[in-house]
Amino acid sequence: MSIFFLLASFVISFGFLLVAMTVHEFAHGYAAYRLGDNTARFSGRLSLNPFAHIDPIGTFLLPLVLFLASQGQIIFGAAKPVPINYWALRNPKRDVIWIGLSGPLANFILAVIVSILWRVLPHIELVNFVCSNLILINLVLGIFNLIPVPPLDGSRIVMGLLPPAVAERYAAIEPFGFFIVMVLWGIGLLNIIVWPLVVFTLRLLIPF
Hints:
Elements: H1 3-34, H2 39-42, H3 56-69, H4 92-120, H5 125-145, H6 153-161, H7 164-171, H8 177-186, H9 189-205
């Protein structure tokens, strides 16, 4: 595969990823806003403008490296986290669960909407390509983020369910979260957990 074709493929795939990450981060900010925290709004993050959520390393460099290293097989990244002031929430213990869940849920809702639209749009090659990739990247992003390793969204849900003292010790592993995820990825555990769920959900959403 030529480098030019690979880079062109990256630009297209990156576009789908950027849509999914933007919806994901907006949902976090909107959920926090509705639950009493205005931090995302005041910091300009309560927006569907992708540029409001871009992190140079996580949003661009990481997906590019993964895409090139895998010869176009893997694209994944992370947007700039939406700032949350948990003390401003009306019920921090409960609301942290909803904020954590909001991002993946937004990705799943977008995947369902695209699936419905796909059923009424003409099944031409371009439509099939766009819809299938949008559904796939949203499912992968949503399911991956439900892994209960800080700072992924699944950890926020777990923190809200744990007793405060245990939740505090659990949150303390966040600085090592990236390395934990990389180890899980390296030993193939994420493929065992994440990919079967993605495939199962794809079969429900792809209309043919």
